[in-house]
Amino acid sequence: MPWTTPPPRRLVILGVAASDCHVVANQLIARFLRDEGFEVENLGACTPVEEFARACVRRPEAEAVLVGSLNGHIHEDLRGLREAKRSGRVHCPVVVGGNLSVGCGRSLASDRRLYALGVDRIVHDPATLPTVLAELRTAESQFADGRFTEDGTAVGAGAAWSGPARVS
Question: Which tens digits make up the pLDDT trace of 46-68?
Fold first, then answer.
């Protein structure tokens, strides 16, 4: 019987937005992704953008940052995201999900604000995360390097996820 090395587990960085202490969904998503074959670095609750950035620097193999919110204050919590991405400290797509605005219901204006902050994908159904991550990985693999133009537009690796964001 030949010995084979299992493929490396795909790494995602998971956390709950800075002002949010709700962790039940976070723990369930972490378990679901692990069961799907992902390595999950779970930063837990009340995670500021800077902590996500430090995790990305520490774990350059991460293929996505996943940020959850239940309290609806994610817009304020992600204010430093665009700069963290522009500086290269957050080098991979950022996917958000959960209750993304105060009150009930989803709005196109709320989604647009998140994209303007640097979010790449919005996921309303956590069951779609493996598919979303596969799409992001496929899109990213089509590019060779990770450069930015003067206006912060991505060129090369990650350019596909830095363009028009989608809702899943």
Answer: 999 999 999 999 999 999 999 99
State residue 108 phi and psi, 5-degree precision. -65, -35
Of 31, 163, 29, the C-alpha closest to 93 is 163
Active site residue 22: yes
Give pTM, 2 decimals: 0.81
pLDDT for 4: 77
Instruction: Give the integer Cα–Cα distance in Å for 59 and 150.
Output: 26
Q: Which of 20, 77, 111, 120 is catalytic?
A: 20
- Lowest-pLDDT range, 5-14, 37-46, 127-136? 5-14
E-strand stretches of the chain:
10-16, 38-42, 64-69, 94-98, 121-123, 146-148, 154-156, 166-167
The verdict on whether 20 is a catalytic residue reads yes
